[in-house]
Hints:
Elements: H1 2-10, H2 31-47, H3 50-70, H4 78-84
Amino acid sequence: xxxxxxTVKNFDxxxxxxxxxxxxxxxxxxxxxxxxxxxxxxxxxxxSMIPGLVAGGMFKVVLIxxxxxxxxxxxxxxxxxxxxxxxxxx
Length: 90
């Protein structure tokens, strides 16, 4: 591959032997590790939602600060209604 060879040459890199691309650890599912695998799956699912939850909460704080300190009448507008629907819990 010309791009790879040019990159190795230009950045003074050394190439090594190929590695096995299958890095997944295939462990048999047993009663002893079923709970651990289930918790791992739930953790992986919830971890990706944390940035969205934090951003939604910060956005809600900005809306509250606008209503409390900048313009109290902003809470009566349709813009506020639409923006406040982004993060539902109050």
